[in-house]
Design goal:
There is one protein chain. This protein has 14 helices and 11 strands. It is α/β, with parallel strands linked by helices. The protein has 2 domains: 165 residues, Rossmann fold, CATH 3.40.50.1970; 160 residues, Dehydroquinate synthase-like, alpha domain. A 7-stranded mixed sheet has the order 1-2-9-6-5-3-4. The chain has a two-stranded antiparallel sheet with strand order 7-8. The protein is globular, with a radius of gyration of 20 Å. The N and C termini lie far apart (42 Å). Keywords: Cobalt, Lyase, Metal-binding, NAD, Nucleotide-binding, Zinc. Its EC number is 4.2.3.4.
Length: 356
């Protein structure tokens, strides 16, 4: 697969990853290399990755705990302190090897340490490969509120080595697939139709689908790097999806919902709202609900929790002037942004999702 240029960053795939990284190390006089991992990528990915690095520059490994609950400023402070203790300077390089938590947090740490050091992202989950790999969004959560603190800044390189997916559990693979399904809904029938029989998808299909998903997101981001218009379409399903994810994170009695699992619910709700407000075909909404729930199962959301989830919408990053802005679908591949949705329609959407 050809490498992809995205603004001032390059995305490389599989065998080209290590050649590109080693050339980058040769061209730049980095003082030290810091590799950020969690306990999972330390065990499963780092041995493969570090064996391919060709450099005489000193390498230090920094490990943080995995999980969305650790994507916060406290973890950043720990990494910043470790960088200081290990004498990192402005010519240091940070390489983030992990899923979205690692690449988001590691990118933010790099962008803010000594007002910015170079960094490289090595996404190791399907979600991070197709979502966090493009666009330069870095950041952390504020309590249970998703991605409230951060900056937009591109890494020098993104290295997508799909071999790392072999170590992922099924639920993590499904979580990543949710973002690819979103790309299909907002882009058009050609890509969307490749997912209509999810039972037939295999790991062999993934390389091509990942590549196409990265191209889709890159094309959107290049036209609107700071999310003033078109890039908002990438948030389809995320307004309510993030609120649901945050709500479930806030209550230890609730089952754990991965990002993609929450976004799947958010997309079903957004399809219903789209039908009600902008004319998205009802039969398409019903078909999407069936497809998603057959593959992902059904989460029982208590009616008593609707108000608490809706209250979290006020923290959504797309909001402005006190308005909660939704991305809706007029048809597959045709989005309408900055839509104001009455609360009663949101409640109706939850009731629609609850029907089995």
């Amino acid at each position: 697969m050809d490498s992809i240029s995205a603004n001032d960053s390059f995305i490389h795939f599989n065998k080209k990853c290590y050649h590109a990284l080693n050339e980058h190390l040769k061209k730049n006089n980095f003082s030290k290399i810091f590799i950020l991992v969690d306990e999972n990528t330390h065990q499963h990915c780092l041995p493969i990755f570090i064996d391919k690095i060709e450099t005489n520059v000193a390498i230090e490994i920094i490990e943080i705990e995995s999980g969305e609950e650790n994507k916060n400023i406290d973890t950043c402070v720990g990494v910043w302190n470790t960088l200081s203790e290990l004498n990192a300077d402005r010519k240091s390089l940070m390489i983030n090897v992990g899923g979205g938590v690692i690449t988001d947090l590691g990118g933010f740490v790099a962008c803010t340490f000594k007002r910015g050091i170079a960094y490289v992202n090595v996404p190791t989950t399907l979600l991070s490969m197709v979502d966090a790999s493009v666009g330069g969004k870095t950041g952390v959560d504020l309590g249970v509120l998703k991605n409230q603190i951060g900056v937009i800044s591109n890494p020098d390189l993104v290295l997508i080595e799909t071999r790392f997916l072999n170590s992922l559990p099924v639920n993590q693979m499904r979580s990543g697939l949710a973002e690819m399904l979103k790309h299909g809904l907002i882009t058009g029938e050609s890509y969307w139709n490749k997912f209509l029989d999810l039972s037939k998808l295999s790991l062999d299909d993934l390389d091509e689908l990942i590549y196409e998903s990265v191209i889709i997101k890159k094309n959107v981001v290049l036209q609107d790097p700071f999310e003033n218009g078109l890039r908002k379409t990438l948030n389809f399903g995320h307004t309510l999806g993030h609120a649901i994810e945050s709500f479930y994170l806030s209550d230890p009695k609730k089952p754990t919902l991965l990002h993609g699992e929450a976004i799947i619910i958010g997309m079903i709700l957004a399809c219903y709202i789209s039908t009600e407000l902008v004319g998205f075909p009802k039969e398409s909404t019903l078909a999407i609900k069936d497809l998603f729930t057959n593959y992902y199962g059904h989460t029982n959301i208590d009616k008593n929790d609707y108000a608490s989830i809706i209250d979290l919408l006020k923290y959504d990053k797309k909001n402005n002037h006190g308005n909660i802005n939704f991305v809706l679908l007029e048809s597959i591949g045709k989005c309408k942004i900055d839509c104001i949705v009455p609360e009663e329609v949101i409640i109706d959407a939850f009731n629609f999702y609850a029907l089995k």
